[in-house]
Design brief:
The complex is a heterotrimer of chains A (114), B (249) and C (90).
Chain A (H helix, E strand, L loop, with lengths): L3 H19 L3 H22 L22 H32 L4 H8 L1
Chain B lengths: L2 H24 L10 H14 L4 H9 L1 H22 L2 H4 L12 H23 L8 H18 L15 H20 L22 H25 L8 H5 L1
Helix pairs in contact in B: 2-3, 3-4, 3-9, 4-8, 4-9, 6-7, 7-9, 8-9
Chain C lengths: L6 H19 L3 H21 L3 H37 L1
Helix pairs in contact in C: 1-2, 2-3
The chains are: A mainly alpha (114), B mainly alpha (249), C mainly alpha (90).
């Protein structure tokens, strides 16, 4: 049972990858990729969790109180926001493919260019 | 590649990956059994050394400052890529303006209240980032959202949200560049790159945490403008044929 | 062993695990944007129960503001291009 959190992270990664591989729409594919990416957030925060730990914010909290790891939170925090720009870049590529081939289906784009 | 063949290739690959994950998980310490020293060390030293009560922000902009700079460059590079792909100067002149008045005054009033509230919340998140949860990254997104809402509640619903989004370009540069300049300023004054320059001030007030506040503000500006640019490029330059109802009004 | 995983945390972890396949199985991008927003809220809850308020705030604004805007703009653009193509073909 104490391994459930890690299993959830692995599950999210697999589900997202399956979605990416079977996708019939490039916009759908980009969102599936965000699911895969969310597994990294879950894994990071899970690894940094300390039993009975509090949030690492010491406003009105005595210094030395057990708190969870701030490093993984810093990683997750910036990653979440930067992921938007990366998804936007993928969507821009999808729109470019749509402009050139008239479709957002990855299979049919291959037909058009081939 | 047919769909059946693709699933035939995918299924064993995913099963193999799941097996590797299971093997990896079996070697991890149980949930909540934290082994690493860094979390304990940072939670002890960041508040006394940097006077930033939010240790996560102290880590983001000071202890791990160079990594965050790289993250900001990823943001910058992505915005650059989107702009190069979607900013089409040749077709910009052909864009049809589809303008339709937002009909409900109640919705518009709600929108105006939300713009004000959004700007306030965004600025608050950015400003107090190193004291309470928040900071430049989420704060910047909220600011961008509030500014975009301004265009929705204006009297026209317009697919071209900015008269000229080139105005935004230098601000993105200031946001990303300000981070580097703060780092170089430390270098120029004889300290390592991105070392904390300023006095640490009184813990728990806005005048604390030294360079963290400036880097936090620079990140907030970079994120807000990056989001605005992304939305501007997406919403701009696509030809909307006028529907009869729009053409009539 | 169970004591380390608080029941509340187990519930939220399960919610996230259930949400992901729903996002992937929703094939229409417009509906998917909505389901993805709900999945984002379950992630926010997860971050909160893992004592991570900063990433939770980040996830909240990203799944509530940024993702929907980018996805909806992309969907609108694809539909707009398609429609303008149809009208020019007539």
């Amino acid at each position: 049972m104490s391994y459930l959190p890690y299993a959830v992270a692995a599950w999210l990664c697999l589900v997202g990858l399956a979605g990416v591989a079977t996708s019939k729409n490039l916009i759908h594919l980009a969102i599936c990729l965000t699911v895969t990416q969310s597994s990294s957030y879950v894994l990071l925060l899970t690894v940094g969790y300390v039993k009975h730990g509090k949030a690492p914010i010491f406003k009105g909290v005595k210094l030395g109180t057990t708190a969870v790891d701030p490093v993984v939170q810093a990683l997750t925090l910036t990653d979440v926001v930067v992921s938007v720009a990366v998804v936007a870049l993928i969507l821009a590529l999808a729109l470019d493919a749509h402009r050139l081939s008239g479709t957002v289906d990855p299979d049919r784009i291959a037909d058009v260019s081939g | 590649m047919t769909r059946r063949l693709r699933i035939g290739v995918l299924a064993p690959a995913l099963l193999g990956l799941a097996g590797l994950f299971a093997w990896a998980i079996a070697g991890l310490p149980a949930f909540g059994d934290y082994r690493g020293p860094y979390g304990y060390v940072l939670n002890r030293i960041v508040v006394p050394l940097r006077h930033s009560t939010n240790v996560v922000m102290g880590t983001t902009f000071d202890v791990r400052g160079i990594d965050t700079m790289a993250e900001e460059f990823i943001l910058y590079a992505s915005v650059l890529g989107v702009t190069l792909l979607l900013r089409d100067e040749a077709s910009a002149g052909r864009v049809e303006r589809r303008t339709r008045r937002l009909r409900s005054d109640a919705v518009r009033l709600l929108g105006v209240v939300m713009v004000g509230g959004g700007l306030l919340v965004g600025l608050w998140l950015v400003a107090f980032g190193y004291i309470t949860p928040g900071g430049g990254f989420p704060g910047g997104v909220v600011l961008a959202g509030a500014i975009l809402l301004l265009y929705l509640v204006g009297s026209h619903r317009d697919y071209h949200p900015f008269r000229n989004e080139h105005v935004l370009d230098p601000f993105e540069g200031i946001g990303a560049g300000g981070y580097v300049v703060t780092g170089l300023a430390a270098l120029a004054s004889g300290m390592p790159f991105l070392a904390n320059l300023f006095g640490h001030g009184q813990t728990g007030t806005l005048a604390s945490a030294g360079s963290i506040g400036i880097l936090n503000g620079a990140a907030g500006l970079a994120v807000a403008v990056a989001m605005l640019l992304l939305f501007a490029e997406f919403l701009e330059t696509y030809v909307v044929p006028l529907e009869p109802e729009d053409a009539g009004s | 062993m169970l004591a380390t995983l608080v029941p509340l945390q187990a519930v939220v972890f399960s919610l996230v695990a259930l949400g992901a396949p729903l996002v992937v199985l929703t094939r229409d991008p417009l509906r998917q944007a909505l389901v993805n927003g709900i999945y984002g809220v379950t992630l926010v809850l997860l971050f909160v129960v893992l004592q991570a308020p900063d990433p939770a705030l980040s996830m909240l604004v990203v799944s509530g503001i940024a993702y929907p805007l980018v996805i909806l703009a992309a969907v609108a653009r694809v539909r707009g291009e398609r429609r303008s193509k149809e009208t020019s073909d007539d």
